[in-house]
UniProtKB/TrEMBL annotation:
Organism per entry: Helicobacter canadensis MIT 98-5491
Subcellular location: Cytoplasm
GO biological process terms, semicolon-separated: methylation; pantothenate biosynthetic process
Protein name: 3-methyl-2-oxobutanoate hydroxymethyltransferase
Keyword Chloroplast included in the entry's annotation: no
């Protein structure tokens, strides 16, 4: 038996089975190199439209195209052989159920992603239902929705009052009914996140939504300390990535200028 044939990719069934048993871990990735490093260490890898900010340097996520998302998802799938890969559906690609289905079919045909992620609450019920009926696995996304940053006038924490909390719970239940197998809950008050997780049969993965959900997701460049402009409250940095890389580059420059690099054993 070949090594390749023994590799087993995480399945949607396995993710569902972790509900109330084991916390789910998710991290973003945009290329094969980092996907390969993260692979098997985390349960799920999200090719997030956040790449438009952390990779491209834009101010928000709205300008990324479906073509770009597919390109990066292909790259991530080349690096990730075990973790479950999810492709974010970018702004405008789910404007109608029909448009969403055509875009999601492209993702499935052109990449090895096992699911797509869609931002939106109850208004996305028909869209998610249509995708699921056509064999597309869907991760929902409610709470703070980055694709609405311009219309909402910024990034705002959700669930601050009873009306908002009830609305989020209704959205979550509706997406579960539509067939979403998992839900990302972003920027929601901790106590609201806990209630939503307790009332759903599917896993709820939080980002800035407290500890009492079924798992967590972070943007890799935030978590590893490569993004230096600011640090969101919900981020824990596990590495001073930017500092370490900058120091390594500075050492390389010194070695080149001094003639220390390359040495004889580094030359042909």
């Amino acid at each position: 038996m070949s090594i390749q044939s023994t590799i087993k990719q995480t399945t949607i069934t396995q993710i569902l089975e972790k509900k109330n048993k084991e916390k789910i871990t998710m991290i973003t990735a945009y290329d094969a190199l980092f996907a390969g490093i993260f692979d098997s260490e985390v349960d799920m890898i999200l090719v997030g439209d956040s790449l438009h900010m952390s990779f491209f340097g834009a101010k928000d996520t709205l300008g990324i195209s479906l073509d770009a998302m597919i390109y990066h998802t292909k790259a991530v799938c080349n690096g990730a052989k075990e973790s479950l890969v999810v492709c974010d559906m970018p702004f405008g690609s789910v404007a109608t159920p029909e448009i969403a289905l055509q875009g999601a079919i492209r993702v499935y045909k052109e990449t090895n992603a096992q699911a797509v992620k869609i931002e939106g609450g109850a208004e996305m019920y028909e869209t998610i239902k249509k995708l699921v009926e056509n064999g597309i696995a869907v991760v929902g996304h409610i709470g703070l929705k980055p694709q609405l940053v311009r219309s909402e006038g910024g990034y705002k924490v959700k669930g601050k009052n009873e009306k908002e909390a009830q609305g989020l719970l209704c959205d979550a239940i509706k997406l579960q009914e539509a067939g979403a197998f998992c839900l990302v809950l972003e920027g929601v008050r901790s106590e609201v996140g806990q209630v939503i997780a307790q009332n759903l049969k599917i896993p709820v993965i939080g980002i800035g939504s407290g500890v009492n959900v079924d798992g967590q997701v972070l943007v890799w460049s935030d978590m590893l300390g490569f993004f230096e402009a600011f640090k969101p409250k919900f981020v824990r940095q596990y590495l001073e990535g930017a500092r370490l890389v900058r120091e390594a580059v500075q050492q390389y420059v010194r070695d080149v200028k001094s003639g220390d690099f390359p040495k004889m054993n580094e030359s042909y």
